[in-house]
Amino acid sequence: MRDGKDIDIMKNVKIVEWLKCELLSSVAGLFQLLQSGIKNTKEDMLDLISNIILLTYLLGKRLGLSYESIDLKVEDKIKLGLIEEHQVEKWYGDLSELHEYYNTRR
Questions:
Q1: H-helix or E-strand containing 40?
Q2: What is the pLDDT along the chain (106 residues), one digit of tens a residue?
């Protein structure tokens, strides 16, 4: 019985390492795309950013976090940014827009 548990632990460690590498590759890909400037397409940026978000959720799940707890923490951070008048909110109102988006999704 212990062998099955050891296999599960090793499988989880392996997938966590794979997710970390994929996340790093996606972030690097986004940085390269932004740096190149010329060939930036919204579709390429959308693909990379959505992949980063997806991988982050999956990594959180493998590390023992629920999707709901991640969402709640993001919402808390949005609210904190609004209270503290984060620079991105002052200049662009992005946090207010994101807060409204989260509220309408429910």
A1: none
A2: 456 677 788 999 999 999 999 999 999 999 999 998 766 688 999 999 999 999 999 999 999 999 999 999 999 999 999 999 999 999 999 999 999 999 998 7
Evaluate whether 53 touches 27 at the Cβ level (below 8 Å). Answer: no
Residues 47-58 as b or e (16 or more Cβ within 10 Å = b): ebeebbeebebb
How far is it, in rounded angstroms, from Cα 77 to Cα 12? 28
User: What is the token pair recorded at 86?
Assistant: 């984060």
Q: Using alpha carbons, list the distances in angstroms from residue 27 to 3, 4, 49, 100.
A: 36, 35, 8, 26
Residue type (1 letter), 100: E
